[in-house]
Amino acid sequence: MSPAASSRWCPTPEQLMILEELYRTGIRTPNASQIQHITAQLSFYGKIEGKNVFYWFQNHKARDRQKLRRKLGNQLQQQQQQQQLYNHHNLHQLQQNHPNYFEPPAACAFHQLSHHHSSTFLSHEGGLEGARAANYRWKLEIPEIRESNAEKSMMMYEQHDWMMLMNVSSLPIQCSSNSSTITTARPLKTLELFPLTATNLKEEE
Amino acid sequence: MSPAASSRWCPTPEQLMILEELYRTGIRTPNASQIQHITAQLSFYGKIEGKNVFYWFQNHKARDRQKLRRKLGNQLQQQQQQQQLYNHHNLHQLQQNHPNYFEPPAACAFHQLSHHHSSTFLSHEGGLEGARAANYRWKLEIPEIRESNAEKSMMMYEQHDWMMLMNVSSLPIQCSSNSSTITTARPLKTLELFPLTATNLKEEE
DNA sequence: GCAAATTAATGATTTATTCAAG
DNA sequence: CTTGAATAAATCATTAATTTGC
Which helix (DSSP H) or strand (DSSP E) does residue A177 occupy? Predict the structure, then answer.
């Protein structure tokens, strides 16, 4: 009965509490160092990774907004005049394609809101300088590719998985020629890179 | 007089060409290792980071779709019958919400294709099993928050900076440093390697 | 010809939507 | 049904094209 490493993070009550507290405090979109910090703190209460923190804030923010939107949407049932006015005014073509867009104006408003908030809590914090200076390390454990149902859908590409610390500038990738490999030079590599097979299958029409 | 490190990546013609070729070949959403490879290869032609590659594909895919959508949108003014038929036939619930989803099947196909490709040049690691084993460290340098115009918009949160390279596995990236005339005119075998056969029309006329 | 001023492309972020585990 | 995870759409911001007046 090993823990069997469930495929997704399950926040402990403590973690959740802290996260919510942080959110209440005003943190909406933590940056790298903030995430690092939070993760470190929360890791005391249980297993957790940076991406969990990241996603949590993303989702929480989004859903919070969603609720708010709904609530407001109901409240302002009668003020739709404005709505229509607005709609009629600055409308992109794409809205044609999204007839189910409930409240485009709301969305717009939210953008602004968003900006406002971030600047708000950033200003008060004023403590990013310190963070900004240093380098941080992250241990990235390979994300346990879920092959559970792999047979069906092949596998998922988690393209987010790679997004990270690309600043690997130090990167030894820098062509370690020293060994023989050179001979082939780039053309060959290129070849490897490009499976010219198939190629067809354009997404067109 | 340093180059002053422009704030955003500017692909060299070679890099661009290769990327486009890859795209044409079918790569839409490269995974971690693919991005690694591509980045390594392209780094020979100029400064480049993984995230550039990632973003490039994201944007290219999106804008390609955009164009296509527009085009089709015009073309299919009268063919909406088919659409409806299709929609009615193999429909997930979500398609209700996205009546404007033109080619869900295409998307699917690409995933498969993509997978095929990756396995093609990742075959040496015999799949993902090998990769999954280890943990890796990455140095995360705080991304040099651009404060250039900070006073106006405070700062940007680059939350993407942290997400990255989860999968990084065996990293077979063998670059060739080689001492050829790198400076300006690289031969760019790659180009020659790819018969730019235009069986598929250019994106838009 | 050549810069300042505009516009078009496109790299980089942020937000909204969807998928699927529990 | 809730929510972590992933993807796609929309948006912002900067660079390259280009126009324009001189």
Answer: none
- Over residues A14-30, the pLDDT tens digits come to 888 888 878 877 788 87
| Residues B25, B31: Cα–Cα separation, whole Å | 15
Domain ranges of chain A: 11-95
Residue A162 near residue B55 (C-beta atoms within 8 A): no
In the numeric block, which tokens belong to residue B2? 């340093």
Tell me how far the alpha carbon of residue B94 is from its chain's centroid.
Answer: 26
CATH fold for the domain made of A11-95: Arc Repressor Mutant, subunit A (1.10.10)
Looking up tokens 């900004």 gives A132
Structure confidence by residue, pLDDT tens digits, A43-61:
888 888 888 888 888 888 8
**Closest alpha carbon to C1' of C19, residue:** B94
The string of pLDDT tens digits covering residues A180-201 is: 322 222 333 333 444 332 322 3
Q: What is the mean pLDDT of residues A135-160?
A: 29
| 8 Å CB contact between A204 and B201 | yes
Q: A residues 97-136 near B, CB within 8 Å?
A: 97-100, 115, 118-119, 122-123, 128, 131-136
Predicted TM-score of the model (pTM) = 0.41
A100 → closest Cβ in B49, B97, B165: B97
Output the CA–CA distances (angstroms, integers) from residue A164 to A139, A168, B199, in the order listed.
Answer: 11, 9, 37
